[in-house]
Amino acid sequence: MSGHGQNAGDAPSHGDNGNDQKNSISLSGAVAMGTGVMIGAGIFALTGQIAELAGPLFPLSFIAGALVTSLAAYSYIKMSNAWPSSGGIAMILQKAYGPGVIAASASLLMALSMVINESLVARTFATYALRPLGQENNALMLSVVALAVILLAYIVNASGNRSVSLFSLVMSVIKIGGIVLFAIAAIWVSGIGTGAFAEVAAPARPMDFVASVAFAILAFKGFTTITNSGGEIVDPHRNVGRTIMISIAICAVTYLLVAVAVGSSLTIPEITAARDYSLSAAAEPALGAWGFYFTIAIALAATASGVIASVFAVTRMLTMLTDMKMIPHSHFGMSGGIRSHMLVYTVVVAGALAVLFDLSRIATLGAFFYLIMDMLVHWGVFRKLRHEIGAKASVLLAALAADAIVLAAFTTAKLGSDPAIVGYALLGIVAVFAGEALYLRKVANASPRDQ
User: InterPro entries, from UniProt (predicted)?
Assistant: First the structure.
């Protein structure tokens, strides 16, 4: 999920350090980038939370999440095929709504969901790092380790690494290969008819199952990285859509294998109890100490690289939004360009969220922000752009309806289990729209000299 430091007219970005080049990302590199962002906290932390809501049917939540995400991807693919810009989601929203409050607010919600994802991945890294020490429930240690990995991501990004595509490709192969190896081995040892799948348990309520799909969608939303990097992908008119669908398919198969492996090793109460580290909990009974430490190692590699990639992505998107005058900016006395400032702001906000909220609440905030933004994208494309880009109204409306159903079920479930986080999410969304309205009004009323 990255945004290029360019405005809608492809003007040079302030603070661009020359790392981005047109047609510089191959098809395999783009797939690696998308899957690399998706396969992080999505599978290592959210599996337990999905199982808590969906019960023994939780592997199907990932399938449902893949289907809803594939529907959602239609809008982004059609827009990227027509205008393969590195402006990404902000470009889509500007074309759909014009340079006003809705486009700016929805773009900022997307950026915030990306920052939230950094916190989620960092907190997941901390949980797995502390698991062998028996400190995975130590709130202070979790905060310290999460902050440490966010600081590491800052250092790596500040160094100006020019090999992000190659790095993502190598790490994706390691992550996916390791996770699939764990899943196949666990299923082979435990069998499929054991653990959660052998329980005589009442099926989840339909509303809870649908609510679980919100977390599954969160595990797939990294495909937007590809949309936001459209102008940098080789043959973008052809490859952006292919990359998105290949990435979703790879992640769907990987997530399903992991869900079956976890469910075959642990009962639903055991998965719920270990929801923040369910993969390592499932590895030990199935594969012994070797499997336990192997899963820990894969989790640490996946989440560390995920934090680095996510910080890189959100920094670029916030730089682009600043250049487009969609969000305010202050140097706070710092030297350097806008991107270097955004890097600092990103890690500060992500670090604060990692300290203030647990994994469940971080994921919940991310799901709310992302679903609202996604619905605004579909409605804008349907209302203004579908004829221009040749999009089918039925598919756009189906994607919008799917998001609305999942959002309604998710809100209902969270109002029952954690109403405070629903309030935080609502407050955050209102603050974003109100803040953008005030900022854009100030920009419009300012004299050219002041701007």
Answer: AA/rel_permease1 (IPR002293), AminoAcid_Transporter (IPR050598)
DSSP letter for each residue of 196-234:
GGG---PPPPHHHHHHHHHHHHHHHGGGHHHHHTGGGBS
CATH of the domain at 43: 1.20.1740.10
Q: How far apart are alpha carbons 367 and 361 in whole angstroms?
A: 10
pLDDT digits (tens, 9 = 90+) for 433-442: 999 999 898 8
Distance, CA of 229 to CA of 4 (rounded, Å): 7
Amino acid at 338: I
* H helical segments located in 198-329: 206-220, 224-228, 236-265, 268-273, 278-323
Q: Is 25 helix (H, G, I), strand (E, B) or coil?
A: strand
The SS3 assignment for 235 reads coil
d(CA 297, CA 151): 20
Tell me, what's the pLDDT at 203?
A: 58
Tell me if 221 is assigned to some domain.
yes
CA atoms within 13 A on the CB side of 371: 29
Concatenated DSSP letters of 362-406: HHHHHHHHHHHHHHHHHHHIIIIIHHHHT--HHHHHHHHHHHHHH
The residue behind tokens 């969220």 is 353
Q: How confident is the model at residue 376 (pLDDT cuts 50, 70, 90)?
A: very high
Q: Is 415 part of a structural domain of the chain? A: no
Domain count within the chain:
1
DSSP string across 117-179: HHHHHHHHHHHHHHGGGT-TT-HHHHHHHHHHHHHHHHHHHHTT-S-HHHHHHHHHHHHHHHH
Type of residue found at 201:
A
Q: Give CA–CA dist 4/230, Å, rounded.
A: 10
436 vs 94: CA distance, rounded Å: 14
Tell me 418's DSSP state.
-
**The one-letter amino acid at 430:** V
Does residue 275 belong to any structural domain of this protein? yes
122 phi/psi in degrees, rounded to 5: -65, -40
pLDDT in tens, 113-126: 888 888 888 888 99
Asked whether residue 11 is domain-assigned, the answer is no
Is the predicted pLDDT of residue 287 greater than 70, yes or no?
yes
